[in-house]
TrEMBL record:
The gene is LOC113728453. One of its GO terms (cellular component) is extracellular region. Binds 1 heme b (iron(II)-protoporphyrin IX) group per subunit. Binds 2 calcium ions per subunit. PANTHER family: PEROXIDASE, PTHR31517. Ca(2+) 2 binds at residues 215, 267, 270, 275. SUPFAM superfamilies: Heme-dependent peroxidases. The keyword Phosphoprotein does not apply. It comes from Coffea arabica (Arabian coffee). Belongs to the peroxidase family. Classical plant (class III) peroxidase subfamily. Belongs to the peroxidase family. Ascorbate peroxidase subfamily. This is Peroxidase. Residues 43-348 form the Plant heme peroxidase family profile domain.
Amino acid sequence: MSFSCYPLFSAALFFEFFLLSFLALLPSSDCLVNVTRGRIPRELSVNFYAKSCPQVDQIVASVTSEQFREAPVSAPATVRLFFHDCFVEGCDASILISTRQGSKDLAERDALDNKELAVEAFESINKAKALVESKCPGVVSCADILAIAARDFVHLTGGPYYQVKKGRWDGKFSMASRVPSNIPHSNSTVNELLRLFSSKGLTLEDLVVLSGAHTIGFSHCKHFVDRLYNYKGTKQPDPAIDPRLLKALKMSCPQFGGNTDIVAPFDVTTPFSFDNAYYGNIESKLGLLASDQALSLDPRTKPLVQALAKDKQKFFLAFAAAMDKMGSIGVKKGPRHGEKRRDCSMHM
């Protein structure tokens, strides 16, 4: 975003109904990665804590594995948290800062675009940080713990296991006002996505590959309801949506007055497994968001969508490399530019 026995949080009954109704309309029908590609800042290293906290990966893994058993939604939620952190001011855990009580200046996590970030993601990082602090006080940054945890959850859902380079410091600033212009939106065009990714030092390939994280996770109706009833003001559904998916989604997401807690899976065929089905889905007009479906329609991105749909291992290798590259965006280094928080939600 594998997810066996997945408790479907607040929308459990809806999701079971949605998935069964959609699948009824359809015809019947190994993962260690070494990442060496891409430019990584010199200060980041797989062995950064080799002397100061050599067991950090294992410590975080003990938390993420337990969290995954207790709340599997933590997996897609934490991966999304990492994306939103890196795209706003870089991978510096600024997304984890809580707004000070009584302050008019909201922190990133309280931005409107971040309101739907699941609490389980924050809980995962807070638990991991507390355990790491008990073993290696004042050593490991929240930013590094978030990067490690995101990797763990990718692997726990069936995706690749890759080495995480470390050495990030935590950011000193967290401003909600910086969020809207720095993250993708559900109706972003390919041109808008390419401009945004380019501004972060990421390529067209990175865009398509990182979008594959939508092989797990869910979205609320409000992010795609216009595709069902009034696409681009036409008062008609998006023609690039399969009629079977359209029918299933309309049963659960009315145009007006629906339950705001209702969610649908990004990947309607294998929603609980980190695999390459996302790409085959958007080839078949089974993308949930307009921004996802657009990748299979644009001639610049379509060839890579087709290639990744055919080859899961190619996707896994590319995804590991892209996560490694994204994890180097805006890295803070040293006390002049960063801090090492003891509590991830509070500046030092």
